[in-house]
Amino acid sequence: MSHQINASEATKLLQELFELAEEDYREKAPTTLPEDVVNATGRLFESKTQAYREALVGCAVARIVNQDIDIRLPATKDGENAFSGRVLADFTVTPFLRERAVPISASPYLSALRGGAKFMKGGEPRVQGDQAGFDALVIVVDYLRTLPADEAKYYLRFLLRQFIELRESSSIALKKIAKPNLEQLTRLIGGLLTVKSGGRIPAILATALFQTISECHGLGWEIDFQGINVADKFSGAVGDITIRKGGTIILGVEVTERPIDQARVALTFNQKISPSGLSDYLFVITTKPEKEAIDAARNYTGVGHEMNFVPLAPWLIHNLATVGPTCRAIFQSKVIDLISVQGTSADLRVAWNNKMDEALGVKS
């Protein structure tokens, strides 16, 4: 009897490795895979026959979860060491990738691979539309089929990264609420702040709120958001967000998910606040600062350089509660505009849409 693969186990594996692949993509991490395997994988993503690369995800999953499976045999009729590639693709891999807005076909086993293809030389049931693409699939399957689970995981992580790169070149329309109310925005913000984004989502939400406050109250602020991990000394900014009025800096803002200690406060003062003569600086935080950091900030406040801390989520909600329906809609638009900026990676747009569905109670 052929092998069955547990869908929950396969989905959990994909979730774990997809998150790591997104980190690899953001950090431009190098790979240590053999050159011929990297080149063959690249050939799969050049092929117009999407089925080859999509079926390969299932082969890698099968190799990891059950070392007894012969991943060259993705049809149950092929013997006791075979597995159902179609079941794994249709009920696990395809829905998983679609939920993450990865461009993918309806079913690889109902397109180019119908008829019970064997992933080996001479194993295809008919002439392939892209024979070179199919040959590249065979190269990778041959590499994968003898790997221990940890090494197969490393390859699957690399493969998923290629799908993430494919997603970057596709268009992802952002969902929006016609008239967002405070309850909906509270759920949306709470959901977004659970997403691992390397600090990008908190910074975008904070920037959008400052833009909303300025527009709704006619403050005329010039709000510069330089993004995360951009060196302030090269950009001329005094924080992640720099607010000016009439060309004069009136507020520097640092948005951080890391705990703030005394050394961080001192460094911020010496490198950003003191050189610019800034009298107002704000840490927008997601974790409580150390007591020594608060004491240090209080000392600087005493000599005319005010340094304050504000928890991000309550600050967002309290302000949105007071600006009214029109400005709550403006806030939503500002966030969408910031997420839509060219160069912003697609994972943020996917996260926005997923959390928007959750906020509205839409089932995936």
Protein model, in words:
Strands 1-2-3-4-5 form a five-stranded mixed β-sheet. Residues 229-235 have low confidence and may be disordered. It has 364 residues and is of the alpha/beta class. It has helices at 7-27, 35-46, 50-65, 85-99, 131-144, 149-168, 182-192, 200-217, 232-235, 262-276, 291-301, 312-323, 325-340, 346-360, and strands at residues 222-225, 241-245, 248-256, 280-285, 306-311. Helix 2 (35-46) runs antiparallel to helix 5 (131-144), helix 3 crosses helix 4 (85-99) and helix 10 packs parallel to helix 11. The chain folds into two domains: 7-168, no CATH class; 182-360, Trna Endonuclease, Chain: A, domain 1 (3-Layer(aba) Sandwich). Helix content is 55%, strand content 8%.
How would you characterize the largest beta sheet? Answer: 5 strands, mixed
Structural class: alpha/beta
The proportion of residues in beta strands is 5-15%
Instruction: Spell out the helices and strands N to C.
Output: HHHHHHHHEHEEHEHEHHH
Our measurement of the CA-to-CA distance between the termini, rounded to an integer number of angstroms, reads: 34 Å
Q: What's the gyration radius in Å?
A: 25 Å
- Average per-residue pLDDT, rounded, comes to 89
Q: What's the CATH first level of the largest domain?
A: Alpha Beta
Q: Which word captures the global form?
A: elongated
CATH architecture of the largest domain: 3-Layer(aba) Sandwich
Into how many domains do the coordinates divide? Answer: 2
